[in-house]
What we know:
The chain has helices at about 25-50, 55-60, 70-90, 95-105, 135-155, 160-185, 200-225, 230-250, 260-290, 290-305, 315-345; strands at about 110, 130. The protein has a domain at about 5-225: Alpha Horseshoe (Serine Threonine Protein Phosphatase 5, Tetratricopeptide repeat), CATH 1.25.40. By secondary structure, the chain is mostly helical. Helices cover about 60% and strands about 0% of the residues. Helix 10 packs antiparallel against helix 11. Strands 1-2 form a two-stranded antiparallel sheet.
Amino acid sequence: MLLYFQDPSKLKTKRVVYEETYYARDSGTLEQLKELTSKRKSIEESLNGSSHITPAIAREMAGGVTSPILQDLQKLERYIPLLENLVMHVSSQRENMQIVQWTIDLKLRWTSPLSGFSGFNLGGSKYFRIDDLRYELAMVLFLYGALMRERALEVMTVDLVESATLFRRAAGVYQHMAQQLLPGLQPSLPPDRPPEVTTSMATIMSLICLAEAQAVTVQKAEEKSTSGGLLAKLHFGVTQIVEEASSLLRASYGDWNDVSDRLKRFLNTTSGLHEARSWRYVAEDFKKSEHLGVAVGILRHALNKVQQLRAPSEDNMKLVFRQEVDALSGMLRKCEYENDFIWREKPPRLDELPVLEGRKIVAPILYQPFGLDREFIFVT
């Protein structure tokens, strides 16, 4: 019942040419700058849909990898170490006004799919420019985490363990952004900034990835016929993680000008559906213990809460939402029928229903910077 929310990866960017902006003193520095430009160009082309490479050639260049998502992850893993190294070097010379001016001349521009400016045009048409090389690293790492989520969704049908691991790795990327990279960038952000470069949104994305990792873990537990009581706690644990992200989103509106309505709906729907699934497992346990009245009361309450949710408009979310509503309705009809004709138990009042308990069992996998250490020698 995992909802597919793929907006975070729908980024676009404008061209950047490092060797035309930073002036190298030696051939080694020039080659590094050209390598940065080359590695970034392959990412630009993937994001902007401007590549003329055929799928067969792309597969050969990726060592036989057929997944376009995995191919893009490989491109990022070639670019990120070089970029981290350049950011470290440029940051150490922040007092050098010439290097500061060169960074401004790069004209770093990215769209923001999580901004309200994007609307339903994924990727958006508004380019945000911030003249700080850490902005480039932040957006590239944001994309890295987003594509890792995409890969987790891609492998979910064949390997739930690998899928959960990828979600946890993505959570670690966003956690690194929130705790290590972005705090130093916040003071230099202009009022018109994309949500993707704020510590609050990085934390929200980390929580989303953790919720998805737990949702996949619950699916694995369901395949193993784990007890209903534990499954109920695990599903409600997903709800608790998502609610933490929703609360942070509401508390952080001052960090950006606007934020995507699609993100808000995704969080709201995910929270509601996992709570409903938790109630279903609780009701099933009461049904098995022949407390049909309690089961009926629980299912009526759960169905009412789900029906109060705003049904998603996206096709890939509609099906999951409809399936959960139908499952609740079907189970409620059966329990009401059995209770009316056999047990005749009075359903409990709302304040007499059991309280859901949550259990969280996932944690981020720590992101480690690549640790590349190459020297840059600029003309100063």
